[in-house]
Amino acid sequence: MTKIIKARLEHLDDVLKLERLCFSNPWTEGQLLSEIESEYGCVFIDYNGETPVGYCIYHMAGDQAELYRIGTDPDKRGQGIGNELMKTGISWANGQNAESIFLEVRASNVPAISLYEKHGFENIGMRKKYYTAPVEDAVIMVRKVTEDDNSCS
Ligand SMILES: CC(C)(COP(=O)(O)OP(=O)(O)OC[C@H]1O[C@@H](n2cnc3c(N)ncnc32)[C@H](O)[C@@H]1OP(=O)(O)O)[C@@H](O)C(=O)NCCC(=O)NCCS
Fold first, then answer.
1. I need a labelling partner for 53 at 20 to 30 A (CA). Which of 22, 70, 85, 100 fits?
2. Whole-angstrom distance, CA of residue 144 vs CA of residue 101
3. How are strands ordered across the β-sheet holding 41-48?
4. Whole-angstrom Cα distance, residue 78 to residue 65?
5. Which residues are catalytic?
6. What pLDDT is stored for residue 150 in this prediction?
7. Among the listed residues 39, 40, 18, the one whose alpha carbon sits nearest the alpha carbon of residue 29
């Protein structure tokens, strides 16, 4: 059983560790800190005991939320951690009165696209050659936030 909490300064090292495990182009410590400290951002981190196993980063822009990052430790994937992080992030967005949640994802990222579709996101377009290293198109996805979604702050 894991526990998802809002990351604070003392969790920065664990978020950075997961970020580096999950992405080939990891955010810097400073970028992560800025989201932890931002009044518009929220970083959630999932712990199994003392061990960080997953995280996600959301940010509000006007009445829309954006999912910036979500990642599970490669050794812990396929165990439902991504699902729980998605539920928590959607609840947070609802608590922020977001109308919808946007995200971009590499077109080849089948696990992530499947996760997002499972949580109600729809493909609304592409950004050509949006990503570098390697160059790749982004799929843009959106999901409305409704009153049926749980709400947490
Ligand atoms: C995407 C990611 C977060 C999924 O995390 P996870 O903890 O393995 O996800 P879960 O075990 O909760 O699986 C949830 C759903 O994701 C999808 N999924 C997960 N792994 C998958 C795979 N290998 N192939 C296809 N779909 C997959 C499925 O829809 C799954 O639903 P199911 O359990 O009913 O089959 C994880 O693969 C990851 O960290 N990837 C690297 C970072 C990344 O690409 N992040 C997204 C871009 S920001």
1. 100
2. 6
3. 3-6, 41-48, 51-61, 64-72, 100-106, 136-144, 122-131
4. 26
5. 104, 116
6. 85
7. 18
Ligand 1 pocket, mutate which of 114, 121, 130 (most atoms under 8 A from CB): 114
Q: What CA–CA distance (Å, rounded) separates 36 from 9?
A: 7
Domain boundaries, the chain: 3-144
> For 10, which DSSP code?
G
Model-level pTM? 0.97
Question: CB within 6 Å of ligand 1 — which residues?
Answer: 22, 69-72, 77-83, 105, 109-112, 114-115, 118
Q: How many CA atoms lie within 13 A of 69 on its CB side?
A: 27
CA distance 138 to 108: 9
Give the whole-angstrom CA distance, residue 138 versus residue 148.
29
* pLDDT tens string 66-80: 999 999 999 999 999
Q: Domain spanning 3-144: which CATH class is it, in words?
A: alpha beta
Residues 54, 22, 36, 136, Cα dihedral to 10°: -130
